[in-house]
Amino acid sequence: MYISEKEIEIRYAETDQMGVVYHANYLVWMEIGRTRLIEDLGFTYAGLEAEGYLSPVTDLSIQYKAAMKYGQKATVRTWVEKHGKIRTTYGYEIVHEDGKIAATATSEHVVVKKENFRPVSLRKIDPAWDAKYMEIQRVMD
């Protein structure tokens, strides 16, 4: 299993009235982590879009464990939890500088044609990308 890491400096604008990171910002950080993972593997989401495909979120689950605050740094750890014919599930840990887990999450995605949103197998449009995901996924079919 391959795990990508991306450090995030927490900005004041990402906090709420209680001084902690607003919950929806974790979703943005997950996207940043997912983009980093894809780039670390030698692919780009922008390239996928340029070819006429999108990868929308079809399911999302997040568990908040320990609050993060302005001035701290978060590390987003991202991996391919499971990759199948149509669906890819990414796993995430967002951690404090001392390693304490702030949140864990998964997001499920499908690749679709941009013009009609019909699902398409990643294997058909980019066999190398599909093979890499099969190789590094955590859960084997």
Automatic annotation (TrEMBL):
GO terms for molecular function: fatty acyl-CoA hydrolase activity. InterPro entries: 4-hydroxybenzoyl-CoA_TE, HotDog_dom_sf, YbgC/YbaW. It comes from the Bacteria. Keywords: Hydrolase. Its EC number is 3.1.2.-. Belongs to the 4-hydroxybenzoyl-CoA thioesterase family. PANTHER family: 4-HYDROXYBENZOYL-COA THIOESTERASE FAMILY MEMBER, NOVEL THIOESTERASE SUPERFAMILY DOMAIN AND SAPOSIN A-TYPE DOMAIN CONTAINING PROTEIN (0610012H03RIK). This is Acyl-CoA thioester hydrolase YbgC. It comes from Filibacter tadaridae. The lineage of its organism: Bacteria, Bacillati, Bacillota, Bacilli, Bacillales.
